[in-house]
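Posted in: Structural Biology > Protein-Ligand Complexes

Title: Requesting predicted complex, guanosine-5'-monophosphate in pocket

I'd be grateful if someone could produce the 3D structure tokens for the following input. Sequence and ligand are given below.
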Amino acid sequence: MGGKGWFLLKLLMFQGLFTSPPQDPGFDFFYFVLQWPGAYCDTKRACCYPTSGKPAADFGIHGLWPNYKDGSYPSNCDPDNEFDPSEISDLVSTLQTKWPTLSCPSNEGFKFWEHEWEKHGTCSESVMDQHKYFENTLALRDRVNLLQILTGAGIEPNDEFYKLKDIKKAIKEATGFTPVINCNKDPEKNSQLHEIFFCVDTSGTEFIECPIIPRDRCPSHLQFAKF
Ligand code: 5GP
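-- Reply #1 --
Done. Output follows.
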């Protein structure tokens, strides 16, 4: 090899020392999950409003969950990375409005956020720290005004029954992405619109089409419960 060849080879080797291959985040995509409080409360009966008061009649956040393309998901990935409320003190009032807890007994919400961070958030710690995890999730919530999308399509939380396909169509038309819908049953065995899942890329910031489409856990007609 001539002098020029050696120079190029050395340059490439030198660069190789400093350019690492893209890091595997340890999961394939996120589910961003919103919950309808009317269904949670109607089904659980024993739902409790947070200490800050009755949440708005709007979709709240359930969580941002790292997932694998085969449908499985990692959980509780780092017991050493405990939830630390002091890291999210600037976000608490927004979390109370957009990520309210409905579990009993009434509490401020920290238990729910702690659970979501420790079970799901720690599995994406290669991509974002605690503050970023909550900040990104809140930002995703701001990008889809689900209630407005549904009511704009005549689908309202009035205890009426709607077609699953109409709900999905309205959301797809407004956001560009097909959601996954999850139902639960109230004590009278009515299936109710409970959770809406969107898929998000591994940076936790961009919506994507879901790499896998789980079976709908809803019948063809479902109730949109009042709250
Ligand atoms: P995950 O579905 O994220 O694995 O677990 C949800 C956990 O958070 C449950 O243990 C549940 O009791 C608790 N939790 C607290 N508040 C809420 C809420 O408003 N909605 C839901 N779905 N779970 C809540």
